[in-house]
Amino acid sequence: MNLTIGAVILAAGEGKRLKLDAPKPLAPCLDKKLVDFPIKELKKFFSQNKINGKITAVIGHQRELIKNYIEKNYAEINFAVQVEQRGTADALRSYFDSTEDKEITKQFQYTLVICADTPVVSAYELTEMLNLLINENLDGVAASFIENNPKGYGRIVRGKTGFHITEEKDASSDVQKITEVNSGLYLLKTTYVLEHLKAIDSNNKSGEFYLTDVFKDGLNVKAHCFPNGNVFLGVNTLSQLEEAEKALRIRKKNELRENGVRFIDSSHCYIDSDVEVGEGTVIYPNTFLTGKTIIGKNVVIEMGAQIINSIIDDGAKVLAYSILEGARLHTKASAGPFARLRPGADIGPEAKIGNFVEIKKSVLDRGVKVSHLSYVGDAFIGEETNIGCGFITCNFDGVNKHITRIGKNSFIGSDSQTIAPVEIGDNCFVASSSTITKNMPDGSFAISRGQQTTKEGMAKKFLKKKD
Ligand code: UD1
Ligand code: CA
């Protein structure tokens, strides 16, 4: 039979110390919110261990905002309301008393408690706790770690018969010196927690009901000290938020490296958690890969590139200082240096976008070249067409955007413009400096520029005399 676990995310607190507009669970963290991280890892933990699990968020402070966010993104999560934030034990009581399915919460074999503000905890630690609990048949496990600067954390006070947890405010100066601290992550037998939760009082310096009081000396519980403490980093301040984001990015980059992605110096690469990168790809420093970006195999991402919600196919190149948003580079296409691909830029296989070129909402077919200083918007350009330097699709008449179509194997001379809507056929030739306002049939040539007049000796009339 599958294990059953009720997982509780404590998310009712106010999080004043973060000094943000949003309630703490909705504080930004990479491209997501803090609360997304425990949710993602819990789901992974359930599926990896074939656990029949249910996640409930205990919400209180600004609960409507948090509920709306979670409901919008995850259909399967329950909510319990803690009306007044009277401490973490009180939050867990709210879970057992006020969930939509209160009897069910008591029937899960185990109850897992995780805070909304520990985004680096992963399915790995959760699994290790589960194995310990089962193998040693314990009633509860608290995850602890060594923190040389333990300020703010509850201390793990170990004695002959077990351990208990003392909060910083209630700790004597000796206890404050203890560097083994409580992570706020617990896995407990549900029967055990129900029995001990009742007795917890608020006789302490904060006047709060501390969940840490379910652990007492002499009981069948353990504090398990994890060696890599930074995974339990609690985000109470902006500086801790920055630390957590750094740790999450490092984890992401380690995963990518294990899958064959090569970094020139990964400490300066910023990669969001959902970004995918294929084997053999090389990533230079000072790069930002964000949102739902998917990068294929053997791609080169040079320094200074910013790639947002874009798809880069195998063997493509994003050269230095290029910005791609909502764009696609097909196989072996290249963009940059200094290219800007805006939403809807779809660059065909082996096509080449050069420096200072902006492309928006345009489909460029295989082998198209737009090598220098151009703007292409709302356009379709056929295979192997070459666009010269300084070309502009004049797509906007001040009210509406219009479409430009250029066929395959055409040549558009430098410094030309198309006044959309307009169509140029296949195998056409546009002479340099032309302004194309009328459609061109396949195979046609067009030139539209003023005639040159040359007057010998007349330049001196216009040249300023030097004194
Ligand atoms: C808590 C632990 C501390 C541990 C630390 C790890 C207690 C008493 N202390 O302290 O031992 O070292 O986490 O980061 O548990 N919350 C509610 N309702 C409340 C109060 C808090 O839902 O009434 C939620 C918060 O939203 C937060 C979590 O519980 O997600 C922890 O609360 P917080 O105030 O951050 O506790 P710490 O002081 O960090
Ligand atoms: Ca905290």
How are the SSEs ordered, and which strands pair?
Layout (H helix, E strand, L loop, with lengths): L3 E8 L16 E2 L2 E2 L2 H13 L3 E8 L3 H11 L4 E4 L6 H11 L3 H6 L2 E6 L7 H13 L4 E7 L8 E5 L2 E5 L6 H4 L3 E10 H8 L23 E6 L11 H21 L3 E2 L5 E3 L4 E2 L4 E2 L3 E4 L3 E2 L4 E2 L4 E3 L2 E2 L4 E2 L4 E3 L2 E2 L4 E2 L3 E3 L3 E3 L4 E4 L1 E4 L1 E3 L4 E4 L2 E3 L1 E3 L4 E2 L4 E3 L9 E3 L4 E2 L4 E3 L2 E3 L4 E2 L4 E2 L8 E2 L21
Parallel strand pairs: 1-4, 1-6, 4-5, 7-11, 12-15, 13-16, 14-17, 15-18, 16-19, 17-20, 18-21, 19-22, 20-23, 21-24, 22-25, 23-26, 24-27, 25-28, 26-29, 27-30, 28-31, 29-32, 30-33, 32-35, 33-36, 34-37, 35-38, 36-39, 37-40, 39-41
Antiparallel strand pairs: 2-3, 6-10, 7-10, 8-9
Helix pairs in contact: 1-5
The chain binds uridine-diphosphate-N-acetylglucosamine (UD1) and calcium ion.
Output the structural class.
alpha/beta
Ligands bound to this protein structure:
uridine-diphosphate-N-acetylglucosamine, calcium ion
Rg, nearest Å:
31 Å
CATH superfamily of the largest domain: Spore Coat Polysaccharide Biosynthesis Protein SpsA, Chain A
**Secondary structure: helix percent:** 10-25%
Discrete helix count: 8
